[in-house]
Amino acid sequence: MTPTREPAPRADVPPELPADRLDALHAELTALGSVIVAFSGGADSALLLAAALRALGPDRVLAATGDSASLSRTERAAVQDIARDIGARHIFVPTHELDSDGYRENSPARCWFCKDELAGRLIALAAEQGFAHVATGTNADDRVDRFRPGIRAAARHGVVTPLADAGLTKDQVRAVSRAWSLPTWDKPASPCLSSRVAYGLGITRERLARIDDAERSLRASLRRAGIDSYDLRVRDLGERALIQVDRSAVAAVLACADALDSVRRAGFAAVDVDPRGFRSGSLNENSGTGTDEERPSHGS
């Protein structure tokens, strides 16, 4: 009897990931025919974009990023660079979530209004340019989160979620991204600027610009001081800013006068450093919600 041989492992599949999940993703994307990928430049949407290009080819895939005051200047530049590195066509689509009273009021349901606006714009773009579907980078972990108003809003428009449908978790998304040499495999989450604003404080262009200036200035100050932090946020608590960095960097930031002054110069009267360090969705801790405020709002 001839012994059976195990198939050789595929070079594009991390050993910890069942190959059938990538096969399922490829099959689903192929079946779509053509797709606009809601592209935030994060790990999820970057993997979805790369997988769509493999399945469909560059002529049937378009990366689209919502462009509004809630998109930071740093991320605006990053999404262009990442899409180019992946080899995809990319465009910005103006969105107008700030025209919505529900969005400006900044309740825990804020993300519903943002994703509703973005999904509607992308569905219209798909119809205009002849793309069959719009897809987001929602992963399997996102589906089990009890509070995802943004995901529900996108589903209302018929947006598809190939990563989640294939069963890919966040850790698996990062593992595949690393195996495929995507530049986003270890990129920190980059939610919209509105996610920094404490619930109940109104969202305005001026408030978002202040946060953007504060984070850009803080990052520059930390680089000058040689202080490393994988994650960084400036939370807007009104006239007070709360800096969140990796817990290992908290003491160094507290001792760095230039870092604290850089945030004050952006327009905050007082600046504190969170002693517990960065925590995704920390503004939800007293709101009884999940972590939808840490989801990217310009793609997924």
Write the layout of secondary structure elements.
Layout: H1 19-32, E1 35-38, H2 43-56, E2 61-67, H3 73-86, E3 90-94, H4 101-105, H5 110-129, E4 133-135, H6 140-144, H7 149-156, H8 162-165, H9 170-179, H10 205-225, E5 232-236, E6 240-245, H11 250-254, H12 257-265, E7 270-273
Parallel strand pairs: 1-2, 1-4, 2-3, 6-7
Antiparallel strand pairs: 5-6
Helix pairs in contact: 1-2, 2-9, 5-7, 10-12
Structure commentary:
With 300 residues, the chain is α/β, with parallel strands linked by helices. It has two domains: 19-179, HUPs (Rossmann fold, 3-Layer(aba) Sandwich); 193-279. It has twelve helices and seven strands. The protein has helices at residues 19-32, 43-56, 73-86, 101-105, 110-129, 140-144, 149-156, 162-165, 170-179, 205-225, 250-254, 257-265; strands at 35-38, 61-67, 90-94, 133-135, 232-236, 240-245, 270-273. The strands form two sheets. A four-stranded parallel sheet has the order 3-2-1-4, sandwiched between helices. It has a three-stranded mixed sheet with strand order 5-6-7. The longest helix has 21 residues, at 205-225. It is globular and about 55 Å long. The termini are far apart. The model is unreliable at 1-9 and 287-297 (pLDDT under 50).
